[in-house]
Amino acid sequence: DIQMTQSPSSLSASVGDRVTITCRASQSISRYLNWYQQKPGKAPDLLIYTASTLQSGVPSRFSGSGSGTDFTLTINSLQPEDFATYYCQQSYSIPGTFGLGTKVEI
Amino acid sequence: QVQLVESGGGVVQPGRSLRLSCVASGITFSNYGMHWVRQAPDKGLEWVALFSSDGHTIYYVDSVKGRFTISRDNSRNTLDLQMDSLRAEDTAMYYCARGRGGFTNYYFDLWGQGTPVTVSS
């Protein structure tokens, strides 16, 4: 199975900050990388698929980049509602393994 | 209203069985591959199983192979997960999710609210 390594595991930031989360795959996954946001007690929400395509309705302050093994999720001008845990997931193969998550805290 | 609603979770002893269901509404259920994803308490997400839209392909994560069975009934817009020989490590919130794409370059754009499963004596 493909292993996904996210970093950092947690970070502290302030409203208005720019935040960057990285995700590394154990082998090349082309651009088949998705990002999800999860708030406490809620199901995950899709943010970005295929590395950089913004899901409908997701604010443009979210962006994704990368290919091969290294990927980045960037949140520009962090908003109060962005404090959550973020997961990457590879969709190059099944099982679609997730990273362990990055908790973005105030 | 477009939604997925899971049910069937509960507390069960190790070695026993449980059947989860997910009912879809507001979508053409038969058009989509459907997945189960679980999350152990205070842990990350783990993909569990897939039933393809064409009805011909089923996948499981290795840790549940031979114990869990995924099924779907397109006439009732329902996805099920039969879980047998349950173990403590199966304790988790179980989500059903709609899959977009194929067996590569897929993503989950619609999730249910989850149903909790606790395996404990």
State the end-to-end CA separation of chain B.
Answer: 39 Å
Q: Return the structural class of chain B.
A: mainly beta
Question: Quick one: overall form of chain B?
Answer: globular
- Average pLDDT for all residues of chain B: 96
Shape of chain A: globular
Poorly predicted runs of 5 or more residues of chain B: none
Distance between the termini of chain A: 34 Å
* CA-atom Rg of chain B in angstroms: 14 Å
Low-confidence stretches of chain A: none
Question: Looking across the biggest beta sheet of chain A, what order are the strands in?
Answer: 2-10-9-4-5-6
Number of contiguous helices of chain A: 0
Describe this entry's structure for a reader.
The complex is a heterodimer of chains A (106) and B (121). Helix content of chain A is 0%, strand content 46%. Chain A is mainly beta. In chain A, strand 5 (45-49) and strand 6 form a beta hairpin. The radius of gyration of chain A is 13 Å and the shape is globular. With 121 residues, chain B is mainly beta. Chain B has strands at 3-7, 10-12, 18-25, 33-39, 45-51, 58-60, 68-73, 78-83, 92-100, 107-111, 115-119.
Summarize the structure.
Chain A contains no helices and ten strands. Chain A is an all-beta fold. In chain A, a hairpin with a 3-residue loop joins strand 5 and strand 6.
